[in-house]
Amino acid sequence: MDLILALLLIFVSARAAGEVMERLHQSPMIGEVLAGILLGPMVLGLVDPNPSTELGASLNVVANLGVFILV
User: Fold this and answer.
1) What is the DSSP letter of 71?
2) Phi/psi zone of residue 25: left (φ > 0), alpha (ψ -120 to 50 degrees), beta?
């Protein structure tokens, strides 16, 4: 459940940062990426990132999907 809450927080903050950048007449993607970079390690650092655990493996899959979608 911790992973879902952390991802929800990152998604909401990325959307908010995208809206702010759009109001500044910049690409919303810049704000979304910055929010992910700034909040990702802080929020997901609270979640156990050890890949040998089930939660860490889930986090690894989500991270890889995020990179794939971004590219």
Assistant:
1) -
2) left
Cα dist. 45→4, 26, 59, 65 in Å?
14, 29, 11, 18
CA distance 44 to 59: 8
CA pair distance 62, 70, nearest whole angstrom: 12
Q: Which residue has the higher pLDDT, 22 or 71?
A: 22
Quote the CA–CA distance of 12 and 10 in Å, as a whole number: 6
Q: What integer best gives the mean pLDDT of the chain?
A: 80
Q: Give me the residue label for tokens 């929020």.
A: 43
**How far, in Å, CA of 69 to CA of 24, rounded?**
25
| Amino acid sitting at position 67 | V
Overall average pLDDT of the 32-60 stretch: 73
